[in-house]
Amino acid sequence: MMEMILKTNELCKNFKDQVVVNNVSLNIERNSVYGLLGPNGAGKSTTLKMITGILRPTSGDIEFDGHLWNRNDLAHIGALIEMPPLYDNLTAHENLKVRTVMLGLSDKRVDEVLQIVRLTDTGKKRVGQFSLGMKQRLGIAIALLNNPKLLILDEPTNGLDPMGIEELRKLIRSFPEKGITVILSSHILSEVQQIADRVGIIAGGVLGYESKLQTGENLEQLFMDVVKLHQEV
Ligand SMILES: Nc1ncnc2c1ncn2[C@@H]1O[C@H](COP(=O)(O)OP(=O)(O)O)[C@@H](O)[C@H]1O
Ligand SMILES: [Mg+2]
Known about the structure:
Elements: E1 4-15, E2 18-24, E3 27-29, E4 33-37, H1 44-51, E5 59-64, E6 67-68, E7 77-80, H2 92-103, H3 108-116, H4 132-144, E8 150-154, H5 162-173, E9 181-186, H6 189-195, E10 198-203, E11 206-212, H7 219-230
Parallel strand pairs: 4-9, 4-10, 7-8, 8-9
Antiparallel strand pairs: 1-2, 1-3, 1-5, 5-6, 10-11
Helix pairs in contact: 2-3, 3-4, 4-5
Bound molecules: adenosine-5'-diphosphate (ADP) and magnesium ion.
């Protein structure tokens, strides 16, 4: 039996009378990369926001590390959802330093996470001058500061050039062996196919498919089928 670090059980979120997340039951295996795939508006960010405590579920529950999720678990969950919260007029080091102070962590951790995301040589350069890829990596560094067991990345490759995507892919693939489970969302099929061990496909708020990725699997057909079945037009 695989060990799950996170499970959602029939998770639902309504905004007014719109059902945005509809009975989503995810199973995230420890020390793996899970790809949450779905078109724009599918409910990916909303689902991830419930896992990170930004939004409260309308119904259903979340299990983390073998118990019912509670806010203390956020100490073990790192997240980069939508744009990274960065100070443009500070350096990478300074951006991280500000957070270590807030989190009560040692300075040493700043250099450690800079090394992990390979941003050690940016020196005095201000973040405003960074490429989008560098900003994303710094956002991931921030999410890693508190040594999370689970790292949640919402569309991390959005807007990156192929080089940036390749760098990020290598970085993400390196996490499971460090004891970090990754949930990554994307609307881009090929990306999920290249990074994830397991994939969930969501459309119209419904998780239409979840399975381990098999080599040579026709994910495109699966994706189309789920979208056709569940996406409202
Ligand atoms: N705070 C909100 N209030 C009302 N509707 C929202 C809110 N956040 C998201 N939605 C709606 O929920 C749906 C799913 O959004 P989202 O989870 O952001 O999708 P995705 O991340 O898959 O693109 C969309 O129709 C979006 O307009
Ligand atoms: Mg989104």
